[in-house]
């Protein structure tokens, strides 16, 4: 069995479910740390800063520094920086994406912007959507932090950022560039951050359509863990299988 | 030239532009009234009651009774009534659609509904979209008053109801039944209301993609007037042409 030199790891459904820790996942990360193997959490959650995510993981007993968290907000800010450093942007989204963009040198404003970025915003209003549409129609480059159609909660599946993004894409008939998993954009940046060679890095996650596809598209080996969305039964419906699939990360402990 | 016995007429772009009357359109309707030819205004605007629409038209000097206005909210309420009279419905939308549904005997509630209806709501919130998604995922039949992707305003093109509807359709992966133009559902009901034979009724409007297509799909002759969205230039791009096209309804006065 191949020994991987680095791990990219999903959060929700892989490390925890909402507010509930997955204990075997914590033990898995502790083992990585003890063996000195680099790991980076890669998340489509655009609403929180890396420090806030690290704090949540630490509160579960999962050893995490701020630098071990890579969010789609950071990936979005980097992507925009490559296109036009210090540009102007109209943002729909919460603190995480706003912080990432301003930290990277972007100016957030309402009109005549170079970019429109849509990230999850549970305080969405018609006026925010209107401003996003007007800027896109005026030529702003349109980016969405992630295309997740649904957000799993204790109430059920609520609208995800991909569905909110569709207001702007349907109204303006302009497709955005999506940054988060399953796109390669976030994965290529995450590989740079972790610094291990692609062929020696494993992508770990619970959701085929985002985590596993992201790994495959980026040319990584993949490990699907059945603690979240994609059950064994659902996995049978996919043509291309992940490199590995386990019921729990406990099964992976002797392969680290 | 054929003499039509009834006219179905669009509003925005045909009778007025926002708050501005199109004087030739007023004269055209006055002529219809004087000659005793039935006419019915057919609108995708779900936000106002027929009485409110009639009042606006009267304020422009366009002779209109409440009964001469047929909104997509009325068409939606009739459609739901045919599927399940006195059912329960979760509604995103303004006064017009709420009034039409309660008047028709429906009970508006938040959970466990038979139907979800989405109409234009400029006070949209994430919570409203969440409730719509949860009801659709729980099996509620999903209906949208109209699929207009954009709303023309003095600020530019803002998100139309079709784009707001897409949040629910993308998130739940469930397509709604659309009621308004260009769908036949509203047109068939409008024909019943006006009461003139299909072959003797003319559909008049400014927008090919809604008004003219609606007429064509319903098997009516169509008259495109270039006072709104579809210019002469744009019209050249369509394969199937309307029965007639004029720059202004003034040109139609001697054909009534």
Automatic annotation (TrEMBL), chains A, B:
GO terms assigned for molecular function: metal ion binding; phosphatase activity
Give the co-factor note: Divalent metal ions. Mg(2+) is the most effective.
Catalytic-site annotation from UniProt: 10 (nucleophile), 12 (proton donor)
- List the GO cellular component terms: cytoplasm
Q: Which InterPro entries match?
A: HAD-like_sf, HAD-SF_hydro_IIA, HAD-SF_hydro_IIA_hyp1, HAD_sf
Task: Name the residues that bind substrate.
Answer: 181
Top-rank EC class of the record's enzyme: hydrolase
Q: Record keywords: rRNA-binding included?
A: no
Q: What is its EC number?
A: 3.1.3.-
Q: Any idea which positions bind Mg(2+)?
A: 10, 12, 206
Report the family membership.
Belongs to the HAD-like hydrolase superfamily. NagD family.
Return the protein name: Acid sugar phosphatase
Q: What is the lineage of its organism?
A: Bacteria, Bacillati, Bacillota, Bacilli, Bacillales
